[in-house]
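Posting this for the archive.
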Amino acid sequence: MKNFMVIDGAQNSTYDIFGIDKTTFDIVFPDNSDIAFLDEVSSRVKALGLDEVDFFNKLYSNKLQKRNIRGLHGILLSTGSPSRKEYYPTRKESDVSRK
């Protein structure tokens, strides 16, 4: 299982963490990336011919308690997130410019 955190723009966001299987994780976070943007995930899901409703229902079906997780493997930046794509050109946190 791979774990990812959702960051959105809500002032009362709780930064939920979800667990997903590796196949689904690789759709959300392709090419060993660990940063994803919701609109890009949606585009990938459509390009793969997957049903978006089913995919996102599965994606968000296994909410985890933060105190119980073992590792965080990715961050999904949702609609309204203050993060901007140009700071994550490779979609890998290790490559973020700190300028």
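Residues 20-72 form one domain. The chain has a mean pLDDT of 93.
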